[in-house]
């Protein structure tokens, strides 16, 4: 936990300086994908941080990846348009065949193959993953996929999709999660041939979609690992995702705190800075303390993950604490700015909307609490 | 062509400078440090010349305490081939730095030395000129454009009232102005590669240079606080205040 990656942070900061608040506001207003920002992150090699050097990446761990994402958010930007390019490939790396790794990882590291769409949630199964109903049926040398996914982010900006589908009905295996399989779907080849992607308009500029599969044929070699064992393949990726999202929350919280502090020092009412009032400074100080505590848990989770040990409790707690800290900091910042916080030009209202997402995605606060209650504390399962 | 670039570790330009309570200098403990921005431009120019095939080797050099290595590492991540760190905990004055750079130039025999025109901490704007004098080389300061032909370099300089172009015989010392180029940020793969590049370490004694300070700093204080302005109603009132209150006309 001692490495602070100051060299990497400083480079990401320089990159982000080219994408100021004005850039993000324009995209937000036009509901546009930050193509230039993603291209710069790709060109800088930052999205290949976690890919081993033998496949053209930088072979770094989650702690370094977290530093990259935190800096993006601390700069006032948002990494959601490309953070999945960093970690979805982990499932291919850990569970794919040598041929799959050779075929895809170098392109993903270079950025000319985008693997940043993950088809899991369905309209009738979000948290209850085992209840998903999208099916993949083996027919000779290919699988035929039917069903529907929702909240599939970045599907319009991805070449490949990691897809979780049933290859055996629920109840056939010993556990409910048995019978789920992971596929790597070539989206470009599938569009119009049984795959349809429809964007969903949301509260923030987040390129999310619903995806429909109508007798989509994919080659049998699209299967990752063994058929039916897919659920466990995606679990370890989820811990990585939670830790990295917690770093984005820490970046957001630090942005809000800096923004509020600067404003409270500058803004004068009744002839003195508003930050001189305890009613203003205490919430900022509280947000700072909570943010620093969350940052420690995030770093601890990353260190455990990078040491190759089980980090479920820490990854979940990091995501929970950091999402709480960023939301509290957002609320505090808006309150500090008063009416000006609602004016778009200060970026506070945009970041406020953006950081609210982390209470819900990629996993909701309640689910984390029930995980801690059941798996850490040994309380009865509540659902 | 072989190029040597000097880089300096300074307080980051974003940091609000605080004067130490004992008035001996500015606070540098727990303060974010970065490469002097004009030196980033110097490194960038060297990297571009290497990429264009004009330069075969680019050596980044710096002097100072342990943290200096980090700044040299940044230069290596931007594209310098290797580094030299002259370790010293003394407060190094421009003349001492110029002497150290001369000693390094004698060892390394570069064809071109590029420096920032000044460092943003002390704003001395002396080292490049002193170095050129000590070496007896041509100097092109405040460069906004460089063009090479044979053993010469044409330097476009930003001077009062316009641009001046000098044609210098090499070897030469160049100092960079803001508009020479826009420095790149290091890519992640290059940051990783830089960790494997070598930084030679030596001391001022190894180079036979006495770096004892020649100047004594008496006191460092904050600039006087700016008084709030006043609105004037008429030109006559403005002239009156300028003449009688401000006493500037």
Key features of this structure:
heterodimer; A: 383 residues; alpha+beta; 13 helices; globular; B: 249 residues; alpha/beta; Rossmann fold; 6 helices; 27% helix
Structure overview:
The complex is a heterodimer of chains A (383) and B (249). Chain A is an alpha+beta fold and 383 residues long. In chain A, 49% of the residues lie in helices and 16% in strands. Chain A contains 13 helices and 10 strands. In chain A, the strands form 3 sheets. A 4-stranded mixed beta sheet of chain A has the order 1-4-5-8. In chain A, strands 2-3-7-6 form a 4-stranded antiparallel beta sheet, with no helix packed on it. A two-stranded antiparallel sheet of chain A has the order 9-10. In chain A, strand 9 and strand 10 form a beta hairpin. In chain A, helix 1 packs parallel to helix 4, helix 9 runs parallel beside helix 11 and helix 11 runs antiparallel to helix 12. The relative contact order of chain A is 0.11. Chain B is of the alpha/beta class and 249 residues long. In chain B, the strands form 2 sheets. A 9-stranded mixed beta sheet of chain B has the order 9-8-7-10-6-1-4-5-11, sandwiched between helices. Chain B has a two-stranded antiparallel ribbon with strand order 2-3. In chain B, strand 8 and strand 9 form a beta hairpin. In chain B, helix 3 crosses helix 4. The longest helix of chain B has 15 residues. The termini of chain B are far apart.
């Amino acid at each position: 936990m001692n490495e602070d990656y100051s060299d990497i942070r400083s480079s990401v900061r320089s990159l982000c300086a080219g994408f100021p608040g004005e850039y993000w506001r324009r995209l937000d207003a036009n509901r546009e994908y930050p193509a230039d920002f993603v291209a710069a992150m790709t060109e800088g090699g930052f999205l290949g941080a976690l890919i081993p050097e033998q496949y053209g990446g930088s072979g770094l761990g989650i702690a370094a990846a977290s530093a990259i994402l935190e800096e993006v958010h601390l700069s006032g930007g948002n990494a959601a348009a490309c953070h999945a390019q960093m970690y979805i490939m982990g499932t291919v790396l850990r569970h794919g065949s040598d041929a799959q790794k050779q075929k895809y990882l170098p392109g993903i590291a270079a950025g000319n193959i985008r693997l940043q769409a993950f088809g899991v949630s369905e309209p009738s199964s979000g948290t209850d993953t085992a209840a998903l109903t999208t099916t993949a049926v083996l027919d000779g040398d290919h699988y035929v996929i039917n069903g529907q996914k929702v909240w599939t982010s970045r599907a319009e900006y991805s070449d490949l999709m990691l897809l979780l589908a049933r290859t055996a009905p629920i109840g056939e295996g010993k556990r409910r999660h048995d019978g789920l399989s992971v596929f790597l779907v070539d989206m470009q080849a599938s569009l119009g041939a049984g795959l349809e992607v429809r964007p969903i308009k949301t509260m923030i500029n987040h390129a999310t979609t619903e995806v429909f599969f109508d007798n989509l044929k994919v080659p049998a070699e699209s299967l990752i690992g063994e058929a039916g064992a897919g659920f466990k393949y995606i679990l370890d990726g989820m811990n990585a995702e939670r830790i990295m999202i917690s770093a984005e929350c820490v970046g957001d919280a630090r942005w809000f705190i800096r923004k509020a502090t600067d404003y409270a020092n500058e803004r004068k009412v009744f002839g003195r800075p508003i930050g001189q009032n305890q009613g203003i400074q205490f919430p900022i100080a509280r947000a700072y303390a909570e943010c620093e505590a969350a940052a420690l848990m995030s770093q601890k989770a990353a260190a455990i993950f990078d040491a190759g040990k089980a980090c479920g409790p820490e990854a979940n707690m990091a995501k929970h604490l950091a999402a709480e800290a960023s939301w509290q900091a957002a609320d505090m910042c808006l309150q500090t700015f008063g009416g000006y916080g609602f004016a778009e030009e200060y970026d506070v209202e945009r970041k406020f909307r953006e950081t609210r997402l982390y209470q819900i995605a990629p996993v909701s606060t309640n689910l984390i609490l029930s995980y801690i209650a059941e798996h850490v504390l040994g309380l009865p399962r509540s659902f | 062509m072989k190029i040597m670039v000097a880089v300096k570790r300074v307080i980051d330009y974003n940091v609000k400078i605080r004067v130490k309570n004992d008035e001996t200098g500015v606070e540098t403990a727990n303060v974010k440090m970065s490469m002097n921005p004009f030196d980033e431009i110097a490194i960038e120019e060297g990297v571009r010349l290497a990429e264009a095939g004009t330069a075969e080797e680019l050596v980044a050099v710096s002097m100072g305490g342990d943290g200096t290595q980090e700044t040299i590492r940044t230069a290596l991540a931007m594209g310098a081939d290797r580094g030299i760190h002259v370790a010293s905990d003394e407060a190094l004055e421009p003349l001492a730095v110029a002497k150290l750079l001369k000693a390094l130039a004698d060892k390394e025999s570069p064809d071109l030395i590029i420096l920032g025109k000044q460092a943003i901490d002390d704003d001395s704007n002396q080292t490049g000129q002193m170095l050129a004098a000590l070496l007896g080389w041509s100097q092109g300061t405040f460069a906004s454009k460089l063009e090479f032909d044979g053993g010469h370099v044409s330097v476009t300089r930003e001077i009062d009232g316009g641009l001046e172009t000098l044609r210098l015989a090499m070897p030469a010392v160049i100092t960079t102005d803001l508009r020479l180029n826009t420095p790149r940020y290091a890519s992640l793969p290059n940051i990783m590669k830089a960790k494997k590049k070598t930084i030679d370490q030596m001391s001022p004694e190894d180079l036979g240079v006495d770096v004892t300070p020649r100047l004594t700093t008496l006191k460092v204080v904050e600039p006087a606080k700016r008084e709030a302005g006043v609105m004037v109603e008429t030109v006559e009132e403005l002239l009156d205040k300028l003449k009688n209150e401000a006493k500037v006309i």
